[in-house]
Amino acid sequence: MDREIVRINNYYTTRDSSPSYWSSFNFFPAYMAYTQQHHLVALFKKIGITSERNLENKKILDVGAGSGVFSLLMYKLGATPQNFYACELNPVRFEKLRVLSPSSNNYLGDYCSLQNSNKFDLIFLNAVLTSVVNFEVRAKIIKKCLDELEVDGSLFIFDYYKKGSPLKSDHYRALDISEVMQHTTQGDFCIKKKLRIYLNLRLGKLLSLVHLDFLIPLLTTFRILNTNVGYLVITKKSSGLKHNE
Questions:
Q1: For the chain, what is the domain count?
Q2: What does pTM read for this prediction?
């Protein structure tokens, strides 16, 4: 596991230090933030979060929080700093997270090694699992997240899924839904298998470049233009019944 942690750390330190990744000509960060917020709000409504007030008292954990961009989105949607927890492995990204996020519940280190007594209403894994190419480490992360859910709490896994994924890299491996499903056989979970399909990344960035962002919602309805990027939502149920949606 230590070798995998070192690899991930080194990769993101090198990538984030590259001027080209954060260049004004690279629309990937802005494009993904736009599409992620759009679909996240829709998914919140499906689990009963219909307004900012619904998020105020929710205890939230962001695993692999990066530089804190997602934290800012959650505050915008109604989360409160005192109830928001974030964990980040990379020291460089963690320092940016500390600057951006007003929460004092920010932790540096490997999530699986952190001793935590909290239970959470919402846990987020945003493009974390595809960055972990070691299957055993992936499994530990998924299991720990499910164990730390409150009853009626939900785990949101936003990632590239195996079918139709464009990922081809030594540092990424697309996620197979079965990797998640195998951890839900014990306990009561409601699993929303339907993924939100996003617009192909290259086409989305091109539209942003020529300021045609308003076409994105329409084009996401055309499956031929899309790639399998989206959310898998797992809710821990209080009843003795397990069911899928």
A1: 1
A2: 0.80
